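Appendix B. Worked example

We walk through a single record from start to finish. Start with the input: the chain for GGDEF domain-containing protein, Amycolatopsis bullii, length 597.
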Amino acid sequence: MADTKGVTLPPEELEALLLEVAHDAVDQAGSQHDGALLRFTALYAASPMGIALADPDGDIVEANLALGQLLGCSPDRLRGRHLTDLGSTEHDVSRLAEGLEQVRAGRDRYQERMLLDHTEDGQLWTDVTLARLPGDRPGSIYPVLMVSDANELHLLQERLLHQNVHDPLTGLPNASSFTTKLEAALGAGARDDIALIYLDVDGFKVINDGLGAGVGDQVLRGVANKLSAVFTGHHDGFVARLSGDGFAVLLRGELAATEVVRLVERALEDLNEPIYLGGHGIGVSASAGIVVRAAVEGGAAELLRAAEIALHRAKEAGKAQWMLFDPELDARDRGRYQLGAVIAGALENGEFSLVYQPTVKLSRPDELAAVNAGLRWNHPEKGELDSDEFYPLAQTTGMTVPLGRWLLAESLAATARWRAHLGDAAPDVCVRLPTRLAIDPDLVLLVKEQLDKHELPARALRLCTDRESMLDPRGEVLDSLSVLADLGAQLVLTISGSADLELIPQHHLPVRHVILSGPVVDALDTDEPAESDLRHLTQLITRARELHLRVGAEGVRTHEQAARLRQLGVIAARGPFVADSATGDEVDEMINRHPRS
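Next comes the structure step. The output line below is what the pipeline stores for this chain.
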């Protein structure tokens, strides 16, 4: 530098120049350092996040205003305190200590949500970050604590979590929460007894529709309170609202069925006490299904199913009562339900056939007056099943109408075959309408289509029904039967007493035949019938004649019983005294041997 490109500087001038350059460099570096320091200080002071600077041991040497405001004190009061002292609980203190150790061990950042102490408000949920700043000496670090307020966010999350597992109307745990609780109670290692109770408010729709949804909601709150009062505090009682007017209770511990039943009976009694709302004293009844067993006996799904079955049985038994789950009865029911579930496939696979019961004239027992057609299920495993074994199941599974349609179609096909061979000497076919088919709005269309298909006069068909079907409010049975009578079909009403018979004049029913059934017929199946039974039967037959009705009887067992009925004025009968039942081939042979005059 003293001799550059021919330019020579004296040493003293060079020294002055180098010092000037050095001073400029130092001044520039100092100004940058001072600027960075000023910016950090301003950021530290103005930050909305609480910040505490600590020495290597973790003692606070400086705290900003935001941290003081967050914790409800001045920053001066925080100086000298150890960072871990800010934790509200022992768990929070230990987590702060753990964070410090991790930062000292080289971790850049430690973050956790925890409770810190607030001077006035007690505990405060915060999001805490621990980091490290380089120290003055190589390898030394200074911990820094940064805190943000998470209280509102945490409370919001807690509220959302509560809403997610609780019913908003009653405040009880909801179905999801109940399932979680049940699965935990049945988890690995469970050794307690378990009691599961399903409760359902009887006729709640009447309250809801009659007095309004607002009153219905208040009733449900009242039910929830009463159930909680009875079961909470007993065997870790857990009460939940499942849906609508359905509730569930879980009990655990050393349980006896008798003790659980006493609690349920107490709850049902409490529910019967009126709840006064808007001047109305509203009392509710409830049905309950109860399951009591050891926790190790099966899983949650099986327990829930058992409680639901017990509840259904309680409702079927008349409501307002409890029913204890019976494993043996359930095993039998499972077989029945499995049977009901495959009816549709059995019908499609041709497993059903017609079975007949001939009706003879009592004055000419060798002459068929009509043939009653019914269904038989030729089950591949269970053998021949009569209609009373599967019709109730068909009602449950919605297969009554398809079975009834098949019965009507096949019966009329058989009738057409008989009439093609014997003409008017062929007997009428009588089909008993299942209630669900009797109330079907398409009944008239169905019957007419089948009559037209087989080119049969309507008079060849007798349609038999009973009091329950006639008065069923779900369909226009009376109108349908009137139209069918106008078409020429013969209507038959099964009766067991005067009340049934009087339906005919009361509703102007176009009935031509009545069939005596049940106890009124069974009363004559003795050597010496009671005088009162004979008088009742005589009055019934006399009244039927006044109404210009033909009187028949079913369930006649013996020829002596048939003879007594004939003496009283019954003109035709069916039952074991003729034949219990006959297959298609057998009835064809009977018709050929005993044609109608």
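Two observations about the output. The chain is about 45% helix and 25% strand. The first strand starts at residue 3 and ends at 4.
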